[in-house]
Amino acid sequence: MNPFNQTNPKPFGRSVSIIGVGCTPFMETLNNPDTTGLTEGELFGHAAIMAMKDAGITAKDVEFYFHGAASPLGCSNYLSPNAQVAEWFGMRGRPSMHHSEACCTGYDAIDLAVMAIASGKYDCVLTGCVEFGDAVAIQGKPACIREHFSFEQFQRSTDWLLDNAYTRHLMSNTGHDDCASWYVEHANLSEEQMDEVLCQLAIIARRNSKNNPLAIDRVTYDEAAKDAGYDDVMKYMQSENNPKIGQYQRISGLEHKCDGAAAAILCATDLVEKYTKNTPIEILGIGNACLEYSNPRLEITCTYEAARQVSNLTGVKPEEIDLLYANDFIISSQLLAAEASGYIPDKEAWKYVLDNRTAFNGDKPINPNGGRCAFGHAHAASGLADVYDSVLQMRGKAGDHQINKIPKTVYLRGYGGGQNICNIILRTKENQKGE
């Protein structure tokens, strides 16, 4: 699958590693009196301070910071939110920039930080993202006063993802069923088989998130089925308790939008010992692709293109990948990401799902944190939340959702805004003193 133009990224000017990570719980802040009045600065600052503490550094060590939000006006009513939050984590006067790539923002946050360091401009940077996906700012009101972002409002906001001059009039949209319908043809499945696969993906996601203290959904579908009087969880998932919202998509396979923030500290790998005692997580390579909605099945095309780039750049073979994260705000994306990356053989991912092999305790785990439908989706922050969980897994410190084998190589497939794809490969950097 080839997009209209292809890029062949070159190796980084110098190696870059992650040395610290932080993440807030993903939550609905308006539903808890302890969190109702939280501002963007407080959420972003919490994640940033966590990341600095994790790295064992202070704000004085950070030379530049990146701030990401998918919808900055809805999040805070700020046009330059990077400048507005600096006081909350000791960055007064530090240079910074804001960026927004919809749901891919958290992955591009890593890419921007890598470019800043690999170029030699900076040695140590902070990159963070924040989103109020459930509690939006009210125009003319202080940012601590928010209102619930209804699903209807959210659906209308997806118009912002389209070129309203041309693409919208071609009847293009996000398409809940786009990836699923492609996979049905790709793997030669029946509609009934695809329904079972999508339901099983959601079941696995909740089983993973149950063990994650930062996840918004901690009740499994097995428990929900039992409470509703079902002995068989699949029958529950295929009942009116989990209605279809398209030909294939059910409500359980759609993101749980919420509020949250995450951050990471990156530095030049050869300077790691100057900053931290943590084992560095090296960023081996990044692949990117972008298409807008007039291009049919752009997610599929771009995912394969970004996978081609990062594979060629790093030389990492599919059998070397120990763990996969996929931005799955539409849960069928897991199938595409698993096969495009080579993590699971072509046309086989659906079988691995039905055999429970993609669960956190399976041999081919995907999204052990629970993913967008169970961990929650704080749009910009979600990609960095995946990076946060990756680092915990690679350190063997993910607690009750730690996968069976401590991963050395992790692949992340970022996707957002319908257009942006960012594929990242991480690897534990061992024996640095001896290298």
Strand order of the largest sheet: 3-2-4-7-1-8-11-10-9
What helical percentage do the residues reach? 25-40%
Please, what is the average pLDDT?
Answer: 93
Give the CA-CA distance, first to last residue: 39 Å
Written as H for each helix and E for each strand, in order along the chain, the element string is: EHEHHEHEEEHHHHHEHEHEHHHEE
Structural class of the helix and strand makeup?
Answer: alpha/beta
The CATH architecture of the domain at 16-159 and 256-275 can be named as 3-Layer(aba) Sandwich
**Rg computed from alpha carbons, rounded to a whole number of angstroms:** 20 Å
> Which CATH first-tier class of the domain at 16-159 and 256-275 would you pick?
Alpha Beta
Shape: globular
How many helices?
14
CATH fold name of the domain at 16-159 and 256-275? Peroxisomal Thiolase, Chain A, domain 1
Poorly predicted sequence stretches spanning 5 or more consecutive residues: none
Total DSSP E strands: 11
Q: What's the story with the biggest beta sheet? A: 9 strands, mixed
Strand content: 15-25%
CATH superfamily of the domain at 16-159 and 256-275: Thiolase/Chalcone synthase
